[in-house]
């Protein structure tokens, strides 16, 4: 974030603390509970938001060196993301062209070759078929047409994007807006090292998981003994970037920082920025590193989802073993708060939605992120239905 924008946002936070005010959406928003239980709707959003939309599969630090790889299964289509011998990022359908078996089963690692365990067909990091045992018995297929199916991919500002559809198009300016791309670049996300991740399978709709990140109104109640110790609840800044948005969660450290001259202010001391990249990503950079949260539906079961929570540490801290250990512990603690407090409430909400006891839930004027997210969700889904 540019220094001028940091100071501007910090001033807003301080003014809201002093005046006891918050961001105001201007009205209430009634969100139908059917959105969390409808199988027909779940099928439409799966196709629209996950099969036909570019996906953030990780950060540059997930592929830290040549020949490193990571795999994903959460998008229905198995994905193999690799960094080739020239350091370039590629993505493929992680399936052997012989009989469709998953080629690389490990979650991440390094390898120059990927071999199917069924018949040992082998592919290189450029997706080419380079090994076909007993080809004299199998026959002489045109091996140049039997490489791994490549998926559209792009690495930008430290973010790794893949389109699950081989014929899809990645247009980050349209997806994120130019303004948000410029701001994300200032965070130097390409200088982050991967530390680890947690995976949570939760009995709640994926949007309910995302909703937990949409306001700080609940900090003094749900997080009374955890996050509330570090953050001022119900105080935030909020801005939109097309379908996406940025929330600034107000840290209690702002109380001491305000005594410093403005040229010594820093947004990571005053706040935790939370970038909501539509539809299912929460990106939270800090002075030390970053948290990445991604929520994925379980096809055909709108009452279940999987969350991936990944932790990253800035390179200048990463070489310090003690710093790595401390930040890993802090990150895991943060993830456990999400699991044991936020997602526990989300599962409770899902039970009510399943019972169809309520026609809708209500978003308050101090919850503008939820207004924007769900109105965007409705608009994008309706537009997709018109095609």
Mean pLDDT: 95
Name the CATH architecture of the largest domain.
Alpha-Beta Complex
The CATH topology assignment of the largest domain is Naphthalene 1,2-dioxygenase Alpha Subunit, Chain A, domain 1
Which structural class best describes the helix and strand composition? alpha+beta
Radius of gyration of CA atoms, rounded to a whole number: 22 Å
Which percent band covers the strand fraction? 25-35%
Count of helical stretches: 12
Q: What's the CATH class of the largest domain, please?
A: Alpha Beta
Order of the strands making up the biggest sheet: 13-19-18-17-16-15-14
Distance between the termini: 37 Å
Shape: globular
Total count of domains: 2
DSSP helix fraction = 25-40%
Describe this entry's structure for a reader.
There is one protein chain. The protein has two domains: 260 residues, Alpha-Beta Complex (Naphthalene 1,2-dioxygenase Alpha Subunit, Chain A, domain 1); 116 residues, Rieske [2Fe-2S] iron-sulphur domain (Rieske Iron-sulfur Protein). Helix content is 32%, strand content 30%. It has twelve helices and 20 strands. Helix 2 crosses helix 12. The model has no long low-confidence stretch (mean pLDDT 95).
């Amino acid at each position: 974030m540019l220094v001028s924008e940091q100071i501007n946002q910090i001033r807003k936070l301080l003014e809201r603390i002093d005046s006891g005010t918050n961001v105001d959406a201007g009205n209430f928003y009634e969100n139908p509970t059917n959105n969390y239980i409808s199988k027909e709707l779940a099928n439409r959003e799966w196709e629209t938001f996950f099969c036909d939309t570019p996906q953030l599969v990780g950060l540059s630090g997930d592929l830290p060196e040549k020949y490193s790889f990571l795999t994903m299964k959460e998008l229905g289509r198995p994905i193999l993301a690799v960094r080739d011998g020239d350091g370039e990022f590629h993505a493929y359908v992680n399936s052997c062209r012989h009989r469709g078996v998953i080629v690389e089963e490990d979650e991440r690692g390094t390898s120059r070759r990927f071999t199917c365990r069924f018949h040992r067909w082998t592919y290189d990091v450029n997706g080419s078929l380079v090994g076909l045992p007993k080809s004299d018995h199998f026959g002489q297929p045109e091996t140049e047409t039997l490489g791994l199916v490549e998926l559209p991919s792009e690495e930008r500002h430290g973010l790794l994007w893949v389109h699950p559809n081989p014929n899809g198009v990645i247009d980050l300016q349209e997806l994120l807006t130019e303004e948000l791309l410029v701001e994300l670049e200032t965070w130097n996300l390409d200088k982050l090292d991967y530390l680890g991740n947690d995976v949570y399978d939760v009995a709640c709709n994926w949007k309910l998981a995302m909703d937990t990140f949409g306001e700080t109104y609940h900090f003094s109640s749900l997080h009374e003994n955890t996050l509330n110790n570090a953050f001022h609840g119900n105080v935030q800044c909020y801005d939109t970037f097309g379908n996406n948005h940025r929330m600034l969660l107000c840290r209690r450290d702002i109380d001491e920082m305000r005594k410093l001259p403005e040229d010594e202010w820093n947004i990571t001391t005053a706040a935790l920025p939370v970038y909501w990249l539509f539809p299912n990503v929460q990106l939270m950079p800090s002075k030390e590193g970053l948290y990445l949260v991604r929520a994925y539906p379980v096809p055909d079961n709108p009452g279940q989802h999987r969350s991936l929570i990944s932790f990253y540490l800035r390179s200048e801290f990463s070489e310090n073993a003690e710093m790595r250990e401390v930040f890993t512990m802090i990150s895991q603690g943060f993830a456990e708060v999400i699991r044991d407090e936020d997602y526990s409430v989300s599962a409770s909400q899902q039970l009510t939605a399943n019972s169809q006891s309520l026609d809708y839930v209500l978003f308050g004027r101090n919850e503008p992120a939820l207004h924007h997210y769900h109105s965007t969700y409705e608009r994008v889904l309706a537009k997709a239905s018109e095609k």
